[in-house]
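Quick illustration, no need to memorize.
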Amino acid sequence: MKAVVVEKFGESVQVKDQPLPEPIDHEVQIHIAYSGVNPVDWKIQEGYFKERMPHEFPIILGWDAAGVVTKTGYGVHHFKKGDEVYAYCREPVIKKGTFAEYVSVNENFLALKPKNISFAEAASIPLAALTAWQSLFDYA
């Protein structure tokens, strides 16, 4: 698959072939239709969080995605192949992101995409909504 990767902090991103991420237990594989772009993406690229966020190169940038489920791992109960979904895909170790053709992520990070919004609209929601929620209910 093609993905936007960073191989060293502070360098330009590159489009490169990367292995197709196969879903493990409790994960679903998503064929990404749209990926959300957030300020954190360029900050990761530049290395601003390298001391605070564990990471492994090459890093595929992006945390927000909307697309279609293409595979499910063992133990997935809430989603099936063909479901239209959107997701917040940040992992504890920054490595596999959503600026790619596919991502595999735990089913708990997904929601069914509402039928009345586009994939582009759905991909813009996860991180922005999480930030708003945390601001209002965790810190305010």
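Strands lie at 2-6, 14-17, 27-36, 59-60, 64-72, 84-88, 102-106, 110-112.
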